Amino acid sequence: MRKKALVVLAIVLLALLVYLYVRRNALIESAIESAGTAAVGAKVEVDDLSLDFLRLRLGFDRFQVTNPNDTWHNWIELGPSGLKLEWKPLLWNRYVIREFYVREIRFNSPRKTDGAIPGKRPKPAGPSLTERARKVLQAKLDETPLPDLARFAQRRIDVDSLIRVLGLTTPDSVETLFTHLQGTAQELRARVVQLDPRDELERVTGLVQPIRPAEIRSLAELTDALQRVQEARNSLQRYRTRFDSSRAWVRSEIELANRRMQRVDDWAKADLARLRASVGLPSFDVAEVAQMLFGPAVVDRVLTALQLVEKAREAMPYVEKAQAFARAGKVQKPPRGKGINVSFPVTERWPKWLVRRVEISAVSSRTDTTRAWFLSGMLQNFNSNPRLFGKPATLQLEGRTTQGTRFRLDGLLDHTSEIVLDQFDLQVTSLALGEVPFPRSRYFPSSLQLNRANASLQFELKGEDLRVDMLIRCPDAAFLFDDPAGDDRVAQMLRRLFSDIRNLDLEAQIHGPVDHLSLRLRSNLDVLLSHQLRTLVGEQIAQAQAQLEARVQRLADEQRRRLLAWYDANLRPVAEKVEEYRTLFEERDTLIELKKQELERRIEEEKQRQKSELEKAARKKAGEILKKLP
After folding, report:
1. Residues 213-267 pLDDT 10s
2. Cα separation, 188 vs 180, whole angstroms
3. Less CB within 10 Å around the terminal CB: N or C of the chain?
4. Of the candidates 267, 271, 281, 263, which has an alpha carbon nearest to the alpha carbon of residue 166?
């Protein structure tokens, strides 16, 4: 019976092995797709996968990674590719790819089917770095929208009615501040009454003042007087410690009140910005022109790069669990009866998966070589646990086209320490960027055609500190308009202005922590466009802007003078009284120190006098003894 059971078991196992061997490619293909889809958040698809067990080689005809933000396009699509695994790590359930070669690669390629995952994706615990950066940068862009010039072309702006209708928030803010300051002043006055040290100082002075060191003759009396002076000094120090603590609190409250009163200028600036925004009043400052025109396009590309880096960080985590374990400093005991897992020493440090080397020698399109990119490069040390592996991932990629366009990309993904560092340096020459869209406006261009441009991009994300420097130089640029100018004089003048511009130099900088980014753009068009736009909108808008600024500034000056007068009447006396009390302490401390020094001098004099008398008496006694000798 036992033999029959073993035969049946052997047949079942053999059938299972045959099934796994026949279905190996489909099973591995499904496993790769499932793992990739879970990591990316959109479909990852592998076509025609093949596996060579003996040589541990794996290949496929196509590999697609869907863009989760645009599920009808792929982030990246690989053509026929292959890789070679190392056999030893497989014994520890680790996957180490020794070589990975790519012969065809495409970016942003269209998909035949939707790559979205059916059902709702789980929401992340908090906003991503990209979402946080998008919020900050969008707020910066909202500060410089494209103005609606039609609103100012043929009508006069009534500043008085504008202020009456919209109102100013500065007076209300000042009244709220006054209410708060009144309470602060009342509390400070009460504290100053409690601070009054004159009674304690009089008691200390009463201990020291009667002492007249010059009139004291005996050493014992001098020592007793010095002890009383020291006791008075100790009492003064105790009073001074309590006084200094309360004085520090009073000073901090007064400084806080001063800082709050200085916010009048901030409120006035906010009022002026709100009035401008309500009517679309443009400032046309030189520093704002580039951000107004090119800001959205630059921000969009930087956020795309940041999102890609975030995905790389998700694929190469910096082992938060391992860090938490190390910080804990000890291993927790398991519950009773549950046992423990004993880890044996490991001679090899392999992450769950590791790609030692990806060799790229590919073309982006084999059907149309006139528009194809010929790519060559290498990706090394890309893995799932950089802290364990101990080496950063590096990327070198070069590309060229038959039209003369070239680029070079150098990257570093250093996730081996607690502060993660991602760096990329991109250099491009003779690149046809195509049409760069602008925000929709009747008077401004709808897009910019960049035919031949040289560009550089330095991208660094260290922890959550972002630093991006971008430079674009294009000697062959053209501004495009969707709508005809018609009979609109302003539109016609702007068309002529933009049609004369043929070259573009643009610099962009985005620096700082993700939640406090600064955005700065400059171009060779800033001064020209600022001057021309100011001229087009006419003198009346400049006058309206000057009137608004003057009204708001006058209001701010009035409120500031009012606050200063209140400060002089309420808080300055408090500060002066506290300083007066401090001076009293200094005077008493000086008095005690002088008494102490005088007593110490008198004690030393008395000791010297007594010593001299003793020596004199000793000499006299010795003389008498010598006279009695025969």
Report:
1. 777 777 777 777 777 778 778 877 887 787 777 777 777 877 877 777 777 778 7
2. 12
3. C
4. 271
The label of the residue with tokens 């005077």 reads 587
Q: How confident is the model at residue 44 (pLDDT cuts 50, 70, 90)?
A: confident
Indicate if the alpha-carbon torsion angle 621, 623, 625, 628 is positive or negative: negative
Dig out the tokens for 14 from the structure: 């053999």
298 assigned to some structural domain: no
Tokens of 7: 């035969």
Does residue 32 carry a pLDDT above 80?
no
- Determine whether 290 is exposed, middle or buried from the number of CB atoms within 10 Å of its CB (0-12, 13-18, 19+): buried
Element of type H or E holding 443: none
Total domain count, the chain: 1
For range 556-584, the mean pLDDT = 80
pLDDT over 90 (residue 85):
no
Give me the half-sphere count of Cα atoms (radius 13 Å) on the Cβ side of residue 346.
12
Q: How far apart are CA 380 and CA 410, in angstroms?
A: 12
Rounded CA gap, 270 and 555, in Å? Answer: 13
C-alpha distances out from residue 442 to 6, 491, 557, Å: 84, 8, 40
Whole-angstrom Cα distance, residue 526 to residue 293? Answer: 10
Q: What is the C-alpha separation between 308 and 522, in angstroms, rounded?
A: 26
Segment 517-525 mean pLDDT: 90
The confidence band for 321, taking pLDDT boundaries of 50, 70 and 90, is: very low
List, in order, residues 6 or more apart from 61 with CB less than 8 Å away.
47, 48, 79, 80
Of 47, 67, 167, nearest in space to 117 by CA: 67
Classify residue 611 by burial, with Cβ atoms within 10 Å: 0-12, 13-18, 19+: exposed
Residue 412 within a domain? yes
Nearest-angstrom CA–CA distance, 234 and 330: 50
* CA nearest to 200, candidates 243, 236, 245, 241: 236
pTM above 0.85, yes or no: no
For range 20-46, the mean pLDDT = 71
Residue 499 lies in a domain: no
52 lies in which domain range?
Answer: 39-116+351-417
* 87 found inside a domain: yes
Q: 332 pLDDT band (50/70/90 cuts)? A: low
Phi-psi region of 566 (alpha: psi -120 to 50; beta: other; left: phi over 0): alpha
